[in-house]
Design goal:
By secondary structure, the chain is an alpha+beta fold. It has one domain. About 50% of the residues lie in helices and about 15% in strands. It has five helices and four strands; from the N terminus they run ααααββββα. The strands form two sheets. It has a two-stranded antiparallel ribbon. A two-stranded antiparallel sheet has the order 3-4. Helix 1 packs antiparallel against helix 2.
């Protein structure tokens, strides 16, 4: 079985973000969430803006609570400042 390594090079990350930003805001946001919160892509794709954004204040929520489908296990994860300050 092959192993998967995270992207560590900041120049590569910036390049990917720039490319995704040109495609759509949501694609860039999904990428940033993926590299910062450590969720599986299936969990990230199931998130909605309501899960991440407080519409009253138009700011990112501090944390998100999700329920895994396979194990029916609830997870609480913090969004973090890097996600909220760069994209919300």
């Amino acid at each position: 079985m092959k192993t998967v390594e995270p992207i560590r090079d900041l120049r590569t990350i910036r390049s990917i973000r720039s490319y995704l930003r040109d495609q759509s805001f949501s694609n860039e946001l999904l990428f940033i969430l993926g590299i910062n919160v450590g969720l599986q892509i299936s969990a990230i794709l199931n998130l909605t803006f309501d899960d991440v954004l407080n519409f009253k204040t138009m700011s990112a929520k501090e944390y998100v609570i999700i329920t895994e489908k396979k194990r029916s296990k609830t997870k609480k994860f913090y969004i973090g400042t890097i996600v909220s300050k760069n994209n919300m």
